[in-house]
Amino acid sequence: DQQVKQNSPSLSVQEGRISILNCDYTNSMFDYFLWYKKYPAEGPTFLISISSIKDKNEDGRFTVFLNKSAKHLSLHIVPSQPGDSAVYFCAASPFGNEKLTFGTGTRLTIIP
Amino acid sequence: KAGVTQTPRYLIKTRGQQVTLSCSPISGHRSVSWYQQTPGQGLQFLFEYFSETQRNKGNFPGRFSGRQFSNSRSEMNVSTLELGDSALYLCASSANGVGSYNEQFFGPGTRLTVL
């Protein structure tokens, strides 16, 4: 039972344009959501997070949007840069619980 | 601040052997979690330790175990290794403030190959 889903295995975006990565979840107990970036054979790097009391959180070029009614979140990267090419994972957990449930990842390729 | 460190970075073992992996969390972080990443199953939660106690556990067999020391360093052990245990094992730490949301920060991982 995949509780966190990233339905796009891959995404290609032109440098300078907006990258939008999507994530859906099914477990109503999830109320904290995180995005990680990962290169092969390395650990995930934390990018940005959002709690269920918010619907938007920004940090530099990264913005995460949360739609609780649709159980959907998205990560926007503006403008996209070649160094953004990596696999992006969304993850979710209930409040106060360190157990993260990860999506399957989306490979983002930024085309120069 | 130094990040999460894991040792060793690479390991090759044969079926039936056991292995111990080590993780040092970010200074001041009290929660340590372990994850397994495989191509087929993705990133899956193994267990979490806080103040030397296992607080959460994923759906893995009893061959997978762990512990945490008083300095928050953690080890995980896999006994009777199987071919399917070949994976990248990731450790993550968080500050785990009471009543707050805590980001988890990951180490570089230990690549385990079982032959």
Provide structural commentary.
The complex is a heterodimer of chains A (112) and B (115). With 112 residues, chain A is mostly beta strands. Chain A is built from no helices and 11 strands. In chain A, β6 and β7 form a beta hairpin. The mean pLDDT of chain A is 95. Chain B is globular and about 40 Å long. The interface between A and B is medium-sized, with 24 and 30 residues.
Major sheet of chain A: 6 strands, mixed
| Shape annotation of chain A | globular
Number of helices of chain A: 0
* Average pLDDT number of chain B: 93
End-to-end C-alpha gap of chain A: 38 Å
Taken as a percent bin, the fraction of beta residues of chain B is over 45%
Mean model confidence by pLDDT of chain A: 95
Structural class of chain B: mainly beta
Order of SSEs of chain B, N→C? EEEEEEEEEEE
**β-sheet strand percentage of chain A:** over 45%
What brief labels describe this structure?
heterodimer; A: mainly beta; six-stranded mixed sheet; five-stranded antiparallel sheet; globular; B: 115 residues; mainly beta; four-stranded antiparallel sheet; 11 strands
